[in-house]
Design a protein that fits this description.
elongated, mainly alpha
């Protein structure tokens, strides 16, 4: 249970770092 949410969080962070343009207005 502790590994599942951790992996999901890491994937989300990685996605944001890989696609900053999608989250940043500029």
């Amino acid at each position: 249970m502790s590994t599942e949410p951790h992996l999901h969080f890491e994937m989300r962070v990685n996605h944001v770092l890989r696609n900053p343009k999608k989250y940043l207005p500029y």
